[in-house]
Structures are given as structure tokens and as C-alpha cells.
């Protein structure tokens, strides 16, 4: 059989087997490829399903028979227990679509099935806040078959809420914009808005009124600017500067408002929402004319106040809210040693306290940091603080710190050193007064203007026998004195005391009197008005003086009797001495005349000495008689015209004999206009002669040679001055001698000086004695022209 197979058959058979093998291989390869494509398609379908499931929109197919093809999410969105399989299942009991939404969706689907009309609905499931947006249209035949409708459902709950919120914000923004626009329009000051080209785009009514335009459109169309070009900067350039700076720019310029020149504060504000590009420049202008006027007036008030504070004696300083020194008047700067640069640099209060402590202008304290902090806290205290500072140099300061409404501090320091010293002196004076009052011999009481007892001393209390408690109650004078009448010999005399006190307090008159107590004491009393309106009652115990008064009266009577006896004795002795002296003088003159025969030179010298002694003794007798009469007050002076020059020349002539004998130079310097005076010539002659005689006699012992006596006289219309001077030993006890009438120096000669004073006083003149030991004595007599 193998022999029977031909090669052709074998070839064909091999070819068939090869083709079959190839077909099997192709089928295998094609199966593998199809398997792979099926897996790819399945994967793609799964991915598409996942995408659809994850999509915010849910596809739903409604077929012509109202069957539904959709994922399980549709049931969850509608609040159903499971996914619906037909249209009627879209409604459930308390879930799914409500009747209105279900019917509306049915009608829309019918319209899409019949007319291929697309639709959009917003549905809200029952019992849910979810909002579902439904977009519907006829489905392709490949998808939904004939009569099918494809629905796309999307959950718009969040979007609707965001949309509602956006609408609310839009409404609020529009309301705020309208309110802001109304506010800008109603603003009393000009406001405007510039666009990106810096041209005016919006102005309010105040702007229109300020530029005196018809309306806002006319202002914008005409580009009418409110602000003029100042210092080369226009309004648009100022706005450009604000845009370039990215912040508000403020300037103060003069502006014409309704024809009146005003000072305005102009503000340009760049508008850039959330830091983005500037979309425009807003601006407004505020009239600060009154503010500037008030600021100027306030500045002038502050300057005037500070000038006034500089004139105060109290030290005043002002500190600002930053606790820096803003002002210090001159007394404050002097008191605390503050320099002008410290005020200019606004030195802090705490630093000033440290400087004051170093300079000894703060009190010494144990814990200075705590003290310093407590005083820095003055700025925050609600009320004023007062302190007394005792400085190391003894200065007493009263310090008052008053916080100011702006957060600053007003510090006032007053130097109370003198006041404290005066208070101490007053207390000391009161204690001294009390001690003095209590130790006075007088009983003293002070009554107030209303008659109440104000002060008293212990002698007053003991005098009337009043207890201290009664006086401490400050009784009225009528109540006090009314209970003391029984102390007096005559009780009704108590009314005299009351009347005296009343006269001093009410009538301001000083009165006095005398009262006698029942125990035999006697008192003088007087009430004296005091400058403060009170009255001082003084009571002096005169009981001892009363006792002495009787004795003195008796002694006075005895002295007067003795004086009368002395006067009579002197007068009698003068006359009795004058009688034999006259006889001696007469016989001497007869001897000098030669009645007893011629006398020799020796005899004549004796007779001349006798006659000189008679003259001297006669003058002494006259002097004694005049002195006695002067002391008794009975010296009689005869008044007759006396030629002064003649009187003095006679006295010089009489004294020259003694001066020549004693080798004393006697000089007369008499003025030619001496004239005459009214007086007793004999007594004046004796007065001058006695002064010359004594001057010559008492110059001799001190000066053996060179002794000099001068008689000088000068006169004017009022009187005559007679001066007798010498260069003798002087009178060291001249004043005492003149007072006592004793012999003293050259000018006294026994009773001469005392008698001279009496004679000069009797003529209405004065006598002055000037003496210096070793230099001489000068006696000046001034006599008036008339009596």
C-alpha cells in the first residue's frame, strides 16, 4: 500500500497537514488574543463602572416600560432601603421623592420620550436636606433602547448651601454698599473717589457744595478739583503719591469752601482689595479751621498759664503721659536745681528723682527703690497725693501730686520751712505767753467779742477764788462776774467791771477803775481793746501802795515843811549875811575914797582885795537866794529889754582883771548883730560873769602858761547863742555834775552850773555843756528873743 501512495498524494497530504497545523495555530493565537481583549474590555468596563460610581453625577436609565437601571447610590440618595427597579419605587413611605417631585419627574420623562425634549429639575427627597439636580434627555437606542430616557443626577446640597450663602453675602454686601453710599453721600465733609487714571469718578453732595457746582456729574465731567495746587503739588499728584506709597497720605492745606478760605486736613487712601492691585484712590477733606483756632487759643492759654506759674511762689511742674518733664516754672527749677536743657529734653520723672536724691532734694528713706517706685506710681493713681518732705538741709516741703486726665502728672511743691519755723515759734511763744501770764504780778483775763472768757492766768483765778473747771467752760462775763459780787466790799461795784469789759469789746474804748475786796485788798483794773477784737482785763494789786501812800503822804508833808523851813532859812541867812556885807562894802568904799586919810600902796591893795571879796560874796549870796527860789519854784524873773552886746562887754571887762592876774588870755568874739532880748539883766550879767570867772579860775591849775578863755556870741532873728569855752582840764563827770548840782570842772564852781541851768530855763532857753578830759570845756547858752 505504501507502494500505492504516490508522491503527489503524500505531498498533498503533507500540505493538508501543514495547513491544518497552521489553522490550529491561528485559531490558538486568535483565541488567546480574544481572551486578552475580553479581559481588557472587562477591565475597562470595571474601571468605567468605578468611575461612574465615583462620579459626583449618577446616570439613571428609564426604559420605555418605566424600568430603571441605576446603581445602588440612587437608593441611598433618595433615602430608600434598596435601589429602585421601576419608576414607582422612587416613592417610599416617608422616603424617596414626594408626590409633587415624583409627578414633575414623570411629566418631564414623558416629554423627553415623546418629543426628545431635555429637562432639568431640582428635587428634594422627603425627610432629607439633600438637594438633587436632575438633567434628562432621550437616551441613545444602544443605551436605553427605543423610548428610553437617560437621567444624570447630581447631589447639589453643598453647592446650593454655598450658593445660598453667596447670595446672602451678596445681599449683605449690597446692603452695606448702599448704606456706605448713603453715608458717603450724607457725609458733611467732601469725599471723592479717583479711578486708576486718577480722574474723579465719584463725589458726594458736600464736595458739590464745596466747589459750588450744579451736580456731581458736572464735577466729574469738568474735573473740578476741591484742593488747589500747594507747593507745586496738585490734587492728582498727591493721590499718585498715596498710590506709590501704598498707604494713606495726610496733608493740611488751605482750601476755598463755598467762597470762604478754610484750613482742611486732606487724606488720600489707596484702595487695593486684599493687597492686590490698586483699583482707585479714595479721599476726604475735614475742616479743621475751628480745631486750629482752638489749638492756637489752647497754645496761647498754655503759654499764658505758664507765664503765670512762673510768677507764683509755689514750685509747679507738669509731666506728660510718657512721664517726661513738660514744664517747670522758675521756683521749681530753683528749688530742685533743674537746668533748662533737662526741661527741653523732657527728662523722665524717675531719672529726676534720682538726680534730686543725689542733690539732697528728697527726704532720707530707708528703702529708696521702693520709695522711688511708689512715687512713679503717682501717674496711675486715681486721685491726688500729698506728702511732707524734710530735706537734709532742714527745708520743709509740702508736695502735692495730681494725675491729669491725659495720663500725665501735675507736681506742686511749696516751701513750708518758714511756716514750720513760724509754727514752732508760735508754739514757743504760746508757751512763753502762758508762763509769762502765770508769773505776772497782775491778774489778767481776755474776753472775746461775744463776752466769753477766752484766756486767764493763775493770779486771776486765785484772786477771785474760781476753780479751774468753771474757767475752762469759758463763761460769759455777766455769768462769771454775777457770782463774784460777794467778794467785794461794795457788791454793786461788780457792775462797773462788767461795764468796763463791755466798753472794750463792743465800743472799743479803754476804761478803768478801782475796787476794794472784802478782805482788805485794793485793786486797780482797766480793760484794753485788743487788735483782734478781744478785750484785755488787767487787775493790779495796789494794797501795798495804798499802805505806802499814807506813809509817803506824811513824808511829803514833812518834806514840804522842811523845804519851807530851808527856804525861809536861806532867805533869812541871805538877808542876814547881806546886811553886814553891805556895811563892810560901805566902809571899804569910804576907805578907798580917802575918808580915813590917804592910804599907802600896801593899804590900798588890802582894801581892793576886801572889795573884791565883798563882790564875790555878794554874788554868791544872790546865787544862793536864786537857787533856793528856783528849787522852790518861786524864782521871779524880770522882763525888760537887755542889750546883749553891752551886757557881754561889761562881763568881759570885769573878768579881764582876774584873767590878767592869773595870766589867762581872755578873748571876746562878739557879733555886731546881737541886738536885744527880753530878760533879767542883773541875773544874766551874773550868769555870764560866773561862767567867765569859773573858766578863768579852773584853767589856771592845768596850764601855767598858754591858758585861754573865749567868749563867743552870735545872734539871728530867733535868739542869741552865747558860748564860753576854755582849754582847761575838762569835766569827765560833767553830766552827773549837772544833774546833781555838784561842782564839776571849769564850768561849775559850786552851785554855779545848777543855778545857770535854772536861770537859762527861766528865760525860756537851753544850756549845753560839752567837756573832754584834757581838752577843755564848752558851755553853750541859747536865749530866745522874746519871753
TrEMBL record:
Location of the Histidine kinase domain: 572-787
EC number: 2.7.13.3
Domain of life: Bacteria
CDD domains reported in the protein's UniProt record: HATPase, HisKA
Catalytic activity: ATP + protein L-histidine = ADP + protein N-phospho-L-histidine
InterPro entries: HATPase_C_sf, HATPase_dom, His_kinase_dom, HisK_dim/P_dom, HisK_dim/P_sf, PAS, PAS-like_dom_sf, Sensor_HK_Regulatory
Protein keywords: Kinase, Phosphoprotein, Transferase, Two-component regulatory system
Protein name per its UniProtKB record: histidine kinase
Pfam families named in the record: HATPase_c, HisKA, PAS_7
GO terms, molecular function: phosphorelay sensor kinase activity
SUPFAM superfamilies hit by this protein: ATPase domain of HSP90 chaperone/DNA topoisomerase II/histidine kinase, Homodimeric domain of signal transducing histidine kinase, PYP-like sensor domain (PAS domain)
Amino acid at each position: 500500500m505504501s507502494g500505492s501512495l504516490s508522491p503527489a498524494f503524500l505531498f498533498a497530504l503533507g500540505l493538508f497537514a501543514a495547513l491544518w497545523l497552521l489553522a490550529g495555530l491561528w485559531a490558538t493565537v486568535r483565541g488567546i488574543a480574544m481572551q486578552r481583549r475580553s479581559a481588557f474590555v472587562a477591565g475597562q468596563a470595571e474601571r468605567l463602572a468605578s468611575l461612574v460610581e465615583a462620579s459626583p453625577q449618577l446616570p439613571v436609565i428609564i426604559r420605555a416600560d418605566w424600568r430603571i437601571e441605576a446603581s445602588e447610590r440612587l437608593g441611598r440618595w433618595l433615602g430608600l432601603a434598596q435601589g429602585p427597579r421601576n419608576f414607582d419605587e422612587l416613592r417610599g413611605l416617608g422616603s424617596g421623592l414626594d408626590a409633587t417631585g415624583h409627578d414633575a419627574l414623570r411629566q418631564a420623562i414623558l416629554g423627553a420620550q415623546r418629543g426628545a425634549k431635555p429637562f432639568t429639575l431640582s428635587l428634594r427627597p422627603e425627610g432629607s436636606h439633600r438637594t438633587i439636580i436632575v438633567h434628562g434627555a432621550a437616551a441613545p437606542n444602544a443605551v436605553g433602547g427605543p423610548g428610553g430616557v437617560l437621567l444624570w443626577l447630581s447631589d447639589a446640597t453643598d453647592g446650593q448651601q454655598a450658593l445660598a450663602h453667596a447670595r446672602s453675602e451678596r445681599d449683605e454686601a449690597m446692603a452695606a454698599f448702599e448704606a456706605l453710599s448713603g453715608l458717603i453721600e450724607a457725609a458733611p465733609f467732601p469725599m471723592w473717589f479717583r479711578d486708576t487714571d486718577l480722574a474723579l469718578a465719584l463725589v458726594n453732595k458736600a464736595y458739590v457744595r464745596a466747589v459750588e457746582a450744579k451736580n456731581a456729574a458736572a464735577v466729574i465731567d469738568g474735573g473740578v478739583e476741591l484742593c488747589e495746587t500747594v507747593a507745586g503739588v496738585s490734587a492728582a499728584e498727591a493721590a499718585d503719591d498715596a498710590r506709590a506709597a501704598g498707604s494713606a497720605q495726610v496733608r493740611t492745606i488751605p482750601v476755598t469752601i463755598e467762597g470762604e478760605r478754610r484750613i482742611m486736613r486732606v487724606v488720600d487712601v489707596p484702595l487695593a482689595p486684599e493687597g492686590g492691585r490698586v483699583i482707585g484712590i479714595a479721599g476726604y477733606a475735614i475742616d479743621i479751621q475751628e480745631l486750629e483756632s482752638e489749638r492756637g487759643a489752647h497754645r496761647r492759654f498754655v503759654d499764658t498759664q505758664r507765664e503765670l506759674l512762673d510768677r507764683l511762689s509755689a514750685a509747679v511742674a507738669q509731666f506728660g503721659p510718657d512721664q517726661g518733664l513738660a514744664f517747670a516754672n522758675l521756683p521749681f527749677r530753683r528749688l530742685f536745681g533743674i537746668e533748662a536743657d533737662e526741661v527741653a529734653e523732657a527728662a523722665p520723672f524717675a531719672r529726676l528723682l534720682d538726680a534730686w536724691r543725689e542733690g539732697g532734694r528728697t527726704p532720707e528713706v530707708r528703702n529708696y527703690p521702693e520709695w522711688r517706685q511708689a512715687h512713679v506710681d503717682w501717674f496711675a493713681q486715681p486721685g491726688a497725693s500729698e506728702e511732707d518732705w524734710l530735706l537734709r538741709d532742714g527745708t520743709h516741703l509740702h508736695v502735692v501730686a495730681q494725675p491729669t486726665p491725659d495720663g500725665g502728672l501735675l507736681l506742686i511743691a511749696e516751701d513750708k520751712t518758714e511756716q514750720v519755723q513760724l509754727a514752732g515759734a508760735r508754739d514757743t511763744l504760746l508757751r512763753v505767753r502762758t508762763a509769762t501770764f502765770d508769773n505776772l504780778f497782775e491778774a489778767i483775763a481776755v474776753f472775746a467779742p461775744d463776752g466769753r472768757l477766752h484766756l486767764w492766768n493763775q493770779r486771776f483765778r486765785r484772786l477771785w477764788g474760781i476753780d479751774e473747771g468753771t474757767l475752762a467752760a469759758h463763761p460769759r462775763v455777766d455769768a462769771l462776774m454775777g457770782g463774784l459780787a460777794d467778794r467785794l466790799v461794795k457788791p454793786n461795784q461788780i457792775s462797773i467791771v462788767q461795764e468796763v469789759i463791755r466798753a472794750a469789746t463792743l465800743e472799743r474804748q479803754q476804761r478803768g477803775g478801782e475796787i476794794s475786796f472784802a478782805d482788805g485788798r485794793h485793786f486797780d483794773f482797766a480793760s484794753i481793746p485788743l487788735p483782734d477784737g478781744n478785750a484785755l482785763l488787767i487787775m493790779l494789786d495796789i494794797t501795798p501802795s495804798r499802805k505806802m501812800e499814807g506813809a509817803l503822804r506824811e513824808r511829803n508833808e514833812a518834806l514840804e515843811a522842811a523845804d519851807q523851813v530851808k527856804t525861809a532859812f536861806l532867805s533869812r541867812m541871805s538877808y542876814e549875811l547881806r546886811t553886814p556885807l553891805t556895811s563892810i562894802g560901805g566902809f571899804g568904799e569910804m576907805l578907798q575914797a580917802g575918808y580915813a586919810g590917804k592910804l599907802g600902796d600896801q593899804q590900798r591893795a588890802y582894801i581892793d582885795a576886801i572889795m573884791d571879796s565883798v563882790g564875790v560874796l555878794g554874788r554868791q549870796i544872790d546865787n544862793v537866794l536864786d537857787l533856793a527860789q528856783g528849787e522852790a519854784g518861786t524864782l521871779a524873773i524880770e522882763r525888760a529889754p537887755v542889750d546883749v552886746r553891752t551886757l557881754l562887754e561889761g562881763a568881759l571887762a570885769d573878768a579881764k582883771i582876774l584873767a590878767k592876774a592869773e595870766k589867762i588870755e581872755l578873748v571876746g568874739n562878739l557879733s555886731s548883730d546881737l541886738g536885744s532880748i527880753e530878760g533879767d539883766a542883773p541875773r544874766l550879767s551874773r550868769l555870764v560873769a560866773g561862767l567867765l570867772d569859773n573858766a578863768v579860775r579852773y584853767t589856771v591849775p592845768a596850764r601855767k602858761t598858754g591858758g585861754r578863755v573865749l567868749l563867743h556870741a552870735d545872734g539871728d532873728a530867733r535868739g542869741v547863742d552865747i558860748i564860753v569855752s576854755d582849754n582847761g582840764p575838762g569835766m569827765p563827770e560833767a553830766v552827773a555834775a549837772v544833774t546833781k548840782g555838784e561842782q564839776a570842772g571849769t564850768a561849775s564852781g559850786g552851785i554855779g552850773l545848777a543855778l545857770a541851768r535854772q536861770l537859762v530855763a527861766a528865760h525860756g532857753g537851753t544850756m549845753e555843756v560839752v567837756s573832754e578830759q584834757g581838752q577843755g570845756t564848752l558851755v553853750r547858752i541859747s536865749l530866745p528873743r522874746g519871753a
